[in-house]
Structure formats: C-alpha cells, structure tokens
Design brief:
- The complex is a heterodimer of chains A (432) and B (310).
- Chain A is α+β, with helices and mostly antiparallel strands.
- Helices cover 19% and strands 34% of the residues of chain A.
- In chain A, the strands form 4 sheets. In chain A, strands 7, 8, 9, 11, 12, 13, 15 and 16 form an 8-stranded antiparallel β-sheet that branches. In chain A, strands 2-3-1-4-5-6 form a 6-stranded mixed β-sheet, sandwiched between helices. A 6-stranded antiparallel beta barrel of chain A has the order 17-21-19-18-22-23.
- Chain A is globular, with a radius of gyration of 24 Å.
- Chain B is of the alpha/beta class and 310 residues long.
- Chain B has 9 helices and 10 strands.
- In chain B, strands 3-2-1-4-6-5 form a 6-stranded mixed β-sheet, with helices on both faces. In chain B, strands 8-7-9-10 form a 4-stranded antiparallel β-sheet, with no helix packed on it.
- Chain B is globular.
- The two termini of chain B are 30 Å apart.
- Classes of the chains: A alpha+beta (432), B alpha/beta (310).
- Chain A: It comes from Streptomyces luomodiensis.
- Chain A: It holds the Pfam family GTP_EFTU.
Amino acid sequence: MRTTAESTEPSAATALLRFATAGSVDDGKSTLVGRLLHDSTSVPSDQLEAVSRASRARGQETPDLALLTDGLRAEREQGITIDVAYRYFATPRRRFILADTPGHVQYTRNMVTGASTAELAVVLVDARNGVVEQTRRHAAVAALLRVPHVVLAVNKMDLVDYAEAAFATIADEFAGYAASLGVPEVTAVPISALAGDNVVTRSAHMDWYSGPTVLEHLETVPVTHDPTDDPARFPVQYVIRPRTAEHPDYRGYAGQLASGVLRVGDRVTVHPAGRSSTIAAIDALGQSVEVAWAPQSVTLRLADDLDISRGDLIAPANAPVRAGQDLAATVCHLHDRPLRPGDRVLVKHTTRTVKAIVKEIPTRLTLADLSQHPDPGELAANDIGRVVLRTAEPLAVDPYAASRRTGSFLLIDPADGSTLTAGMARAATGSP
Amino acid sequence: MTGSSFTGVTYPPFTLTHVDALESEAVHIFREVAGEFERPLILFSGGKDSLVMLHLALKAFAPAPLPFGLLHVDTGHNFPEVLRFRDETVAEHGLRLHVASVQRYLDNGRLRERPDGTRNPLQTLPLLEAINEHRFDAVFGGGRRDEEKARAKERVFSLRDEFGGWDPRRQRPELWQLYNGRHSPGEHVRVFPLSNWTELDVWQYIAREKIVLPSIYYAHRREVFSRSGMWLAPGAWGGPKDGERVATRLVRYRTVGDMSCTGAVDSDADTVEKVIAEIAASRLTERGATRADDKLSEAAMEDRKREGYF
C-alpha cells in the first residue's frame, strides 16, 4: 500500500525531527544551541568566520557561539534573543528543524510558538540552581502544548564538580513535577554546554552517566507516529475545478490530512453540513493513489456532487467530529492588548475563519504552582487561561488532547488582523 | 551528509521522508494563499529556488492551471542564459509574466547607479511599485531560513506595511499550521513556502522531481575574473576593471542573481548527483560563497528586508 516512502531515493529518505529549546536568560541556552550546531559540524565556515569577526570586534577573545543564533541587529546590540528563530541541521541519521525560543521576558508566548510544531522540547536548567519557577513554567507549557517528548538538560555540570548527586536531585524533582503535569516522557542529561560535555560528544568527567548525549537522543527518539491510530481529518483548503477541455468535469477537494488515513472507497461525511459520500479517487500531487495519510497534501474526489467549499471538514462517516457554536478552550494570550469578556474576535480553525465573541474567562493559570485563579477579568500578554467562546457558525473541533491539528485555533482581531491568542480546544464543542 | 549509509533502510508504513514532508508543507502553503487572497503573485527569477517554487505550485493545483501570475525584477545585469530559460519556462507552462525593470528606472532617472555598481538593493523600488500598481496582496518568495541569519527570523506569512517594510520586532507569532494572512488595504503579505528547506533539500528535490535548471548551475568552462575573492563574469555591467585579469575556469553557480554580485565557484560538478555530493561536503553556505551584497555589513540582509526587499 505504500507509495512514496519506498520510491524515494535513499539520500532524501532521512526523517525529520522538529524540536524546540527553552531556558531562561542565563541558563546557557544560546551556548547549548551553538554547541549543538558547532559540534555536529553544522556550522558553515563562512558563518563561523563571521561570528569570530563580530566577536573580535566586541573585544571577545573566543568566538561567542550565541552570535550564531542571534540574527537581528537589536539582538546582537543587546545580547539577547528577541524572537523565535528556526535553525536547520542534519546528521547522517536525521534532519532537524530547531525552533530556538528566547527565554527572556516574553517567554511564554514565544515558547508556545516554538512548541506548537515541536515533537520534542529541550528544557535547560542551571545545575547550581536546580528546578526553579522558570523550569516549571517551561515544563507546564510543554505539557499544555502536548509536546510528546521532553529532555531535561542539566547544564553547567562543570560548576558543580560533575557531581552525580547534584544531577540526580534535579532530575528526580523534575520527573515528579513533569509526571504530575502528564508529560509522557522525560529524558534527563547532565551537560556542560560551554565545555561540550554530553552535548554531542560523551563527557570524560561523568562516567557515572550511561545515558545518551543530547544529540544521540535527538537522533534516536522515536517520532514516527502511526496515523492509523487516529481518525482521519481532512480540512478542505481549496476546490480545484480546471474547467479545461482536457478536464471539463474535474472537481477535487485539495487539502492536507490533519490526522489519520483515508482510502479510496471510504465512506465520509462533510462537516458541519453533515452530508455523506464515498471517496472515488485520491490524487497525490499528480499521481493517483489508493491511500493517503497525515500529513500528506492530496486532492480528494467524491462519488457524489456535494456542495463543499474551503472551511469544510471531511471525516470518516464512522468517526465524525462534533460541531457546535460553544467552544471551551485553554488559551495563551499573545498580544499586548488584553483579552476581555465581550470582545469580538475571529476564530481561525483549520481552514475556516468565523466570527466569535468571548463569553467568559473563567480562570487564569498561575504557572508557578499550576493553581487556577478564578474570574481574572482579562488575560494579558503571556497569560494562560480558560476561555469560553460563542461562534457565529458551527465549528467542527476535536479536543486538542486528541489532535494538535484539529484542536488548535487562533483568535484574530477583526479590526487590524493581529494574531491575539493561541487556543487549544478542551472538549468537543457543545450543541447550540 | 548524503545519507547514502541509509541505503536499504526500510521505514514503517505511513511515514513521510523529510523531502515528502517539506513538499507537503509547501503545497499546503500555496493552497492557503489561493484560498485566502485575491491577487497573489510568484516572484520568479529563473533561479533554482523559484523554479522549485513554481514546480510545487503547479503540482498543488494540478490538473488546473496555475492560479497565480509571475513577476521578475530584472536588474538589467542578469545572466542571458537565465533570462532565456525564464522565458522558455513561462512559454512552456503558458504562464503570465510581469517584468519590473531596474534599467528603466535608471534610464528615466528615478533610480541612480550606486558607486559600488551592485544593483541588488535597487530592486526594491521597482518591486514595490509593481506590487502597488497591480494591487498584489500576497507575494511568494523563494527565501529560505537557512540562507541568512535575518531570514532565520522570517515568518512563513510575513506582513509588510504600505511601504513594503518588514519590522522584525513586530512580527505576528506563527503557531501550528495556522497562517494569518489578514491585512489592511495597501499592505501585503510575503509568503515563503520554502522557509523550512535547506540548500541540500532543494537539490535533492530537484533530483527527485527531475527539475530542469539553467545550465549555469552545472560546471562549465567560462570566462571569469577575480574580485573580492569571488569569480565574477565579465560583462557590460562593469567588469573587469583595470588590473583584473580574465581567465577561463571550470565553474558553476550556486545562486543566480545580479552579475555584479553573484560569484561562481570552482567546481567540476556537471550533474545533479555531483552537485548534491559537492554541497553535502561543502563547508561554505551558498550566500557566503557567492554573494557580495550580504558582506556589506553584519546586518545587510536585515536592513534590505526592512526596506521592502524580498
């Protein structure tokens, strides 16, 4: 049944891992990222030369690896990371896309941004300080965003004499906290980003540690998720109607499978209208196939001529989505303008954008102790809270816990188009 | 880095290789723009990134014709073989091509030649005026985040103000695969479907899809002269100057752009397979190896992008 995986030439066949890093200002995150890129020989010599030149111009004797990742003029002037940057590197075993998220003041929204597409998060702590509030915040965000794998990198081991006890205390405390958050898997690694211990190469100072280096773990962590486990979800992006002499009657629904597997012959239902038909054909970018799976971009043709347009969602008839106009969600507010009950917003969910009103903000989360603060009145930038929305039209939404793709949404300001809030649906939407 | 050691590895059913995942993501981006914007446009130079972009766009809407037009900003110093290739490609697929000419702006006095002779920064004004004139609201560019440190900060959907400017400190956060293309009249959105591709990914895709490129991407003998450590092609644009000696060398280009600032590299890679092997072993980025304009200052790309450059 497989098509592309076997026909692809071997050199292009390595898998891709998207991961995010999180750490507060002085934990050495930029150094870790620089070390990871440098020691895996992923830094081209002209970039390294540019970093050396810039470091010398600042009076630094050794190249400051943090300059590899701080790309903007303002970042380099202030020596801080302002915004998420994406880095690319490869080893013979895997390709990596790294969302390098800043640990500075705007930590939460930037980490939410980086974690939204990540399959793994690296949380950095300073071995001298142990688990601090910021560490708990990062773990909570990773749990909230349902990042499947978390790595705890206990950095600056060189400053605690590479002592096993120091590492074990931190690793145990973090593991307990992560378990209470529902993080499925934590791997703790003792490192020194500055000295290069256990980042890419094994440390000579910590023979008591027998686990993988950070890079070894990144290369081997299983990320292939079997899409047959999930119900198929196909948000319709665009209707392809050539109306050409060659294809006078072609009518295809273009989209990317958000989850699951679809086969020719499957009985499907179109949401929110609720009409059903059968998949007559699947076109995988010009090639006719029998089966497609997430996250392939394909075009479906149905046996019946239904009224289907952008924003509709095609799902198996035996695994429907609940559609409704009341949406309860956990959100991270991103914009400096606060979010308040009564606000009129747009909800962008998969390929559908609808008007909505913020009905309630029942609670705001205190990240330090994970307590819910009732009735906060508003959510400010970086706040995480619960929100109840009423949408102008029904939305077919899955719980975020079941699908990161069909359970996530944005709130957009209808006046100026700003992205206000990132949302994770809590439960299936209720009936009107 | 070619991964040849992976020959024979079998993947579990229902996985995607990284090239398939990148292709699927880029197609998703093209279709999002087609679904949400009124007047999108593809920036097209005939170079490898824009050819890969065009190939992906054609696949995304097949069997329907491409729902976008193309725009080339011609510096007047482009390689003749690339311009020829551009026109052949447009004719082959029956596409609509707009050309914004830097030379015309110089001729009518609206732009002035720079002392260093490079015309790359001069492209911004003709580009922005073409966008305004035709009221394009989404403009696809072939930019990749691996190219340059300012580009590493670039969103897939990048809002530009009415002056075409990019403000890196006021970018919209971009989460999941939910791209926000909302904009006010006069503003437009730059869209980068190849954001997550690297140079090697682009070449592996060219190999797999058998995409034909202008011949100058492959090793050939040509006349070049050395300036600032780069092999430049002589031409009416202003080279060689006194003391610069022309020699015939076996070279190829990793990027194509304005002849005054795009250098060739010594290479005997005359097939796509040899090019992939060469890039995988190279310790230089394509821009570091062959672009003079990025070396003007530590933040040259960021500064140009703020002004409206792609």
